[in-house]
Amino acid sequence: MSATATTPLVINEIYASLQGESTWAGVPMAFVRLTGCPLRCVWCDTEYAFHEGAPMALEEILSRVAGLKVKHVEVTGGEPLAQARCSELLKALCDAGYTVLLETAGSHDIAPVDPRVHVIMDLKAPGSGEEARNRWANIEHLRPAKDELKFVVDGRADYNWALKTIAEHNLGARAKAILFSPVFGKLSYQTLAQWMLEDRERLPDNVRFQLQAHKHVWDPKQRGV
Question: CATH top-level class for 9-217?
Answer without folding.
Answer: alpha beta
